[in-house]
């Protein structure tokens, strides 16, 4: 799952921290500052991770072209280790006035293990202790840093992990293979029986029927909402929130619909909440990840703004694109539900591989990604095909097939939020083509994100309401 921080202030020029400079000088290591950019070879970038267990801490170094496989590491060192707690890591970094962990074993006074593949590079890039700044050193100098470290093979090349980016028709078979590989019981022949999905709640079915009815009335929506006390309370809470700035007190569900929220928004919010509540938010999660609903609300708000910025003649239904944002990470809940014994392992790998997308990690461990899971289940539940496509292709900025506007909007929203230090994952620049397909300039899209983030406090409040529902 993603990280949410307060909006960063104007960027400053990065320079190597004093503690790092002094250490390299003491070791007679020659270095050159290199600012991060997409053209840098990930095979030369040294990823540093600090792990621990009951025995103690261990620094692990490996290339960003690889994924740190905790199972292989456990086989190698005979210990089951996980990422050090964020507060402990901050204490260590704080002693040296560093922002991120540099690839220098001497800073932690703990044993160090490095991936042997690193020694195949004539030049290495080690982290300088500041995000976005690398120090280029020779292999000879890198070996000097590793004088007390041990080598091993515990990584998996990212190029060896094949994602199914465009063959959605194969998702059912892939899910079935993943379940067979990770369950001890006899696998049933029917996929829907195998993954033991909960039945779709009757409230969801009613909302779906209303959603496709062009003649739906306020009374019908009010009736469905009022039959679910938790949903009714949530609608009243939304309408009364500062985010919608209602000018008067909301006294009933009908008031909330007619005077503040509108039919379309109530239906889509209710549908998202009902689907989200059909699967519980997992108690285990990666360190520093954002709450599920907070991530959903931010993304949906940006998508709503992007949709309204599109040319009117090409603009899809705003309510449906908003719903795509709310549900974009629904597959996260499914992974926790379908693979409960292994979901913790996914979380631990996400913690120690911040340079790798969750899709790659899930493909490596399970043979299936959350996007494939989420899209397949929404299709199984007969959700609108636009939502299915949005979930399935949300990380592909080049997707131009059927209903392309929906995954393109999700992709742009996630990418622009990450560029503001809101979220995890790759910050690779979005291609011009995805903005052209949406009919929005890059500058206009950036303006949309800026306006959304001006209401960040109110969005957090709304996300908290979802969590309590």
From TrEMBL:
Source organism of the structure: Pseudomonas versuta
One GO molecular-function entry: kinase activity
SUPFAM superfamilies in the cross-refs: HD-domain/PDEase-like, YbaK/ProRS associated domain
Domain of life: Bacteria
Keywords attached to this entry: Kinase, Transferase
Gene3D superfamilies attached to this UniProt entry: Hypothetical protein af1432, YbaK/aminoacyl-tRNA synthetase-associated domain
Span of domain HDOD: 197-397
Protein's UniProt name: Histidine kinase
Pfam families: HDOD, tRNA_edit
């Amino acid at each position: 799952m993603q990280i949410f921080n307060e909006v960063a202030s104007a960027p400053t020029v990065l320079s190597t921290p004093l503690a790092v400079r002094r250490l390299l000088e003491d070791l007679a290591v020659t270095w050159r500052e290199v600012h991060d950019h997409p053209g840098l070879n990930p095979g030369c970038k040294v990823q540093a991770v600090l792990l621990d267990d009951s025995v103690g801490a261990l620094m692990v170094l490996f290339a960003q072209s690889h994924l740190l496989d905790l199972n292989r590491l456990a086989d190698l060192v005979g210990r089951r280790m996980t990422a050090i707690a964020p507060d402990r890591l901050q204490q260590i970094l704080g002693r040296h006035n560093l922002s991120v962990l540099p690839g220098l074993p001497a800073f932690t006074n703990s044993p160090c293990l490095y991936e042997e593949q690193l020694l195949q590079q004539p030049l290495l890039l080690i982290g300088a202790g500041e995000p976005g700044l690398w120090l280029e050193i020779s292999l000879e100098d890198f070996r000097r840093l590793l004088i007390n470290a041990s080598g091993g093979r515990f990584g998996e090349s990212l190029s060896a992990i094949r994602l199914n980016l465009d063959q959605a028709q194969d998702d059912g078979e892939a899910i079935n293979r993943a379940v067979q590989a990770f369950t001890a019981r006899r696998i049933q022949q029917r996929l829907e029986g195998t993954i033991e999905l909960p039945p779709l709640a009757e409230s969801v079915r009613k909302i779906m029927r209303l959603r496709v009815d062009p003649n739906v009335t306020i009374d019908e929506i009010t009736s469905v909402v009022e039959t679910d006390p938790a949903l009714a309370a949530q609608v009243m809470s939304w309408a009364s929130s500062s985010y919608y700035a209602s000018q008067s007190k909301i006294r009933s569900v009908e008031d909330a619909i007619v005077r503040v929220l509108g039919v379309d928004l109530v239906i889509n919010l209710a549908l998202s909440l009902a689907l989200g509540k059909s699967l519980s938010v997992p108690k285990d999660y990666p360190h520093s990840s954002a709450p599920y609903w907070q991530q959903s609300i931010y993304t949906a708000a940006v998508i709503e703004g992007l949709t309204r910025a599109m040319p009117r003649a090409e603009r899809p239904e705003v309510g449906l694109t908003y719903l795509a944002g709310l549900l974009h990470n629904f597959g996260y809940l499914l992974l926790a539900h379908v693979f409960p014994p292994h979901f913790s392992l996914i979380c631990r790998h996400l913690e120690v591989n911040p340079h790798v997308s969750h899709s790659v990690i899930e493909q490596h461990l399970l043979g299936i990604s959350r996007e494939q899971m989420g899209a397949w289940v929404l299709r199984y539940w007969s959700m609108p095909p636009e939502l299915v496509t949005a979930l399935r292709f949300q990380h592909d900025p080049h997707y131009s097939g059927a209903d392309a506007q929906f995954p393109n909007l999700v992709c742009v929203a996630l990418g622009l939020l990450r560029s503001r230090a809101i979220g995890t994952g790759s910050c690779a620049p979005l291609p011009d083509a995805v903005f052209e397909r949406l009919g929005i300039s890059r500058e206009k899209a950036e303006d949309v994100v800026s306006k959304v983030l001006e209401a960040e406090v109110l969005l957090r409040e709304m996300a908290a309401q979802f969590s309590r529902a």
